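User: Fold this; tokens only.

Assistant: Input:
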Amino acid sequence: MTDSSRDLILAVEQADSPDRLIAAVRALVAARTPAAIPTLIAVLGYNNPGAAAAAVEGLVQLGEPAVVPLLEGIDDYNYGARASSIRALAAIADSRALAVLVEAAETDFAPSVRRAAAKGLGRLHWTPSPQAEQAQALKTLLLVAQDSDWSIRYAAVVGLDALAASIQDAVSRSNILDQLEQISQTDSESIVQARARLALQQISHIAPLAAS
């Protein structure tokens, strides 16, 4: 760790007002150093939404090195910290976050977190042999697509749209198309129907998969 990194981390730890904390976190984020990861994760648990949002941005910028620390630091008791961690993991899109995103999409009580998790499930960077992982993501997205909250159904459609582009199994892609077709015709909200139609149009341009 360089002296400049230590100074930036110390500034976060010693910030004595909400505004100074936000400024210190933003300065630490701008340094883009992996040494900042533990401090940025700690900030997620502070009672300062602005600082937490900046910390999420910094963790996403750092990407893969932040994944394991984020997963190991998931806080089941501090909702704000957990929500921010899930948003960061969804945006980084590392497939190691699959189980956490599945749980969040299916069970989190905050719609904003469930939306982030659902979108993230479709955009994960899959391993070379992703069939089982993609099947789990698809199972969750098909479930969430039936949610009573229209915004979560919308997020599920976005996730299904993205997943269809990377799915390795022809039957699974067919299941996605069937679900989107149903949503486009029967969902109670016109905006969800419209997003499903857009997804169908975009998927139609993807090269077909050979049946296994």
